[in-house]
Design brief:
4-stranded antiparallel beta sheet, about 160 residues, 3-stranded parallel beta sheet, about 40% helix, 6 helices, globular, alpha/beta
């Protein structure tokens, strides 16, 4: 555990209404918060404090805070994996529901033949960010049902 990660945990652990999510693996630190106890001003302060530590905070679904080290997100990770596998872009399917998926969508939508799916229960912020994007399918279904629906529709075409 890095010094900065300890600092992040100390800062967020001291804020009333913010709780660390257990069993989160990898290089991120994740928290949930109760909107009735955490004001927008406090969320802005959290974003600034995390940025001062060199971390990238992502607040989504009006209840989650993911804190990621610089350069770590789904988009660059997916791009590196996809390039190392040298796979046909038409085989790529991405699906997401929150702001921590936005960088993944930026990568997948840069490949016009990839399939990018925003699920029905997606956070309003990512929905707004992608609403006019021609390469994103907005599903009428939640979770895995969204992926199945899009695949079924494509197979029938």
């Amino acid at each position: 555990i890095s010094e900065d990660e300890v600092k992040v945990k100390e800062i967020l652990g001291a804020i009333k209404g913010v709780t660390e999510q257990k069993n989160v693996y990898g290089r991120r630190v994740s928290y949930s918060y109760r909107p009735e106890e955490v004001s927008n001003a406090t969320l802005n302060e959290i974003e600034n404090l995390m940025a001062d530590c060199g971390y990238n905070p992502i607040i989504s679904h009006n209840r989650f805070i993911d804190v990621l080290p610089p350069g770590v997100s789904k988009g660059p990770t997916l791009k590196a994996l996809f390039e190392s596998l040298q796979t046909d872009p038409s085989r790529l399917i991405t699906a997401g529901d929150s702001l921590n998926d936005l960088s993944m969508f930026h990568y997948s939508t840069s490949l016009p033949v990839a399939t990018s799916i925003l699920v029905k229960n997606a956070d309003s912020q990512i929905r707004s960010a992608l609403e006019n994007h021609p390469n994103v399918t907005f599903s009428a279904h939640e979770g895995a049902a969204a992926i199945l629906d899009v695949l079924k529709t494509r197979l029938q075409a």
